[in-house]
Amino acid sequence: MLGRKTKKQKILDEALEHKDFERKRIEEILKSLGKYTPALHPLIEVYLDACEVYHIKYLEWKDTGFKSTKQHTNKNGARNEIKHPLAQQVEVWSEKKSKLLNQLGLDMKGKELEFVGPLGSKLEKKKKEVKTDEPETNNRLVQFRNKRGGNS
Fold first, then answer.
1. Are 19 and 98 in contact (CB under 8 A)?
2. Count of CB atoms within 10 A of residue 36's CB?
3. Taking the CB of the first residue and of the last residue of the chain, which one, N or C, has fewer CB atoms within 10 A?
């Protein structure tokens, strides 16, 4: 029996597609950096689960029109504006994803990441060409040795 998919089922399907895409992307980045190892699989799985939950909450929040607040009625019947629960969840899961990316070494603190991608190889080649033409005067050890007067 084939029927129409509910909005919730469409969101879940899209989140699973995104999770598969993210798995391939993360593994490709780690391999290109030479950091990929099977020991990272549990951490990658936790990251992918966080991505899935984030994506679901994000799409649900998107369906509400990205409302930042929601009307809430307390026990006494007073109505107050509160931060939208889905907005809070998106924020929480976004932070969790960031922390897990940090643990995988894939945040912007990793200087190697600036060269990941199709344009990165061109930038890396240019940087290597510049480095080969210049002596290593910016190296602290070389500077220290030069001050001491020895090259050993």
1. no
2. 16
3. N
